[in-house]
Amino acid sequence: MSGLATPLPHWQRLVHGPLAHWAQQRPDAIAIDDGQQRICFADLHAAVQQQAQALQAQNAPHTRLLDAGQSPAALVTDFLATNASGRCAALGDKAWSPAQQAQAQQWIDALAATPPADGRADEALQSFYIGFTSGSTGQPKGFRRHHQSWSESFRVCVDSFGSAARGCVMAPGSLSHSLFLFGALQGIWTGGGMQLQPRFSASQCLASLRERATPCLVAVPSQLLVMLQLAERRAIAPVESLKLLMISGARWMRQHTPALQALFPKARIVEFYGASESSFIAWMDASAATPPQVVGRAFSNVQLQIRDAAMQPLPTGEVGTIWLRSPMLFEGYVGDQADATAALRDGDWLSVRDMGSIDAQGLLTLVGREKRMIVTQGKNLFPEEVEAVLCEHPRVAAASVHGVDDALRGKQVWVALQLRDDAAPASGQHAGLQPLADTALARTLADWCRSQLEAHKCPRRWFSAAPWPQTASGKTDHPTLALWLTAQQQAAEHLA
Question: Which of 14, 73, 70 has its CA nearest to residue 48?
Answer without folding.
Answer: 73
